[in-house]
Amino acid sequence: MTTDNARQRPRVGLFVTCLVDLMRPNVGFAAVKLLEDAGCTVDVPLQTCCGQPAFNSGDRKDTIEIAQKMIEAFEPYDYVVAPSGSCSGMVRTHYEELCAGDPALQARATALAGRTWELTSFLTEVLK
Questions:
Q1: What angle do CA 80, 118, 89 make, to 5 degrees?
Q2: Sign of the alpha-carbon dihedral angle for 58, 63, 64, 65
Q3: Residue 14 C-beta-side C-alpha neighbours within 13 Å
Q4: pLDDT by residue (tens digit) across 29-55?
Q5: pTM, 2 dp
Q6: Coil, strand or helix: which one is 11?
Q7: 118 to 3, 56, 101, 104: CA distances (angstroms)
Q8: Distance from C-alpha of 28 to C-alpha of 83, rounded to nearest angstrom
Q9: Which tens digits make up the pLDDT trace of 59-100?
Q10: What is the 3-state secondary structure (H, E, C) of 36-103?
Q11: Helix, strand or coil for residue 120?
Q12: Any bridge partners for residue 116, and if so which?
């Protein structure tokens, strides 16, 4: 049974990013603590890279496939929060354009971009 208090808590999907996952996992644990202390329910779904390395090297085909996986992984959440400005920026800035060849996927990318935040921006701008 879900309480009213639990329903009011924003449901956040934490995007831990490649570097956090591989080199600095303590950043991911700290992000979870910050978000939970700020009143969020945090989940870390099965995820992949944001696609920025492929995008920056000009590999649009693989980047679109990566973007589709990210969209699928994070669609259930109220917000997507990443402890990385570049990864959250990748989703917010480039996914809509990347998915332009598929109007349904583009709409999903646009929706995800609107719910994606860098950690400190989310804490200050969304949660106040």
A1: 90
A2: positive
A3: 22
A4: 999 999 999 999 999 999 989 999 999
A5: 0.88
A6: strand
A7: 29, 20, 27, 25
A8: 8
A9: 999 999 999 999 999 999 999 999 999 999 999 999 999 999
A10: HHCCCEEECCCCCCCCHHHHHCCCHHHHHHHHHHHHHHHCCCCEEEECCHHHHHHHHHHHHHHCCCCH
A11: helix
A12: 80
Q: DSSP label at 125? A: I
Q: How many residues does the chain have?
A: 128
Contact (Cβ atoms closer than 8 angstroms) between residue 87 and residue 17: yes
Closest among 11, 7, 18, 1 to 126, alpha carbons compared: 11
The most distant pair of C-alpha atoms in the chain lies apart, rounded to whole Å, by: 48
* Core vs surface per residue 103-123: b (16+ CB within 10 A) or e: eebbebbeebbebbbbbeebb
H/E stretch holding 14: strand 11-14
Rounded CA separation 121/78 (Å): 15
Question: Tokens 């959250």 identify what position?
Answer: 88
Q: The tokens of 55 are what?
A: 């995008």
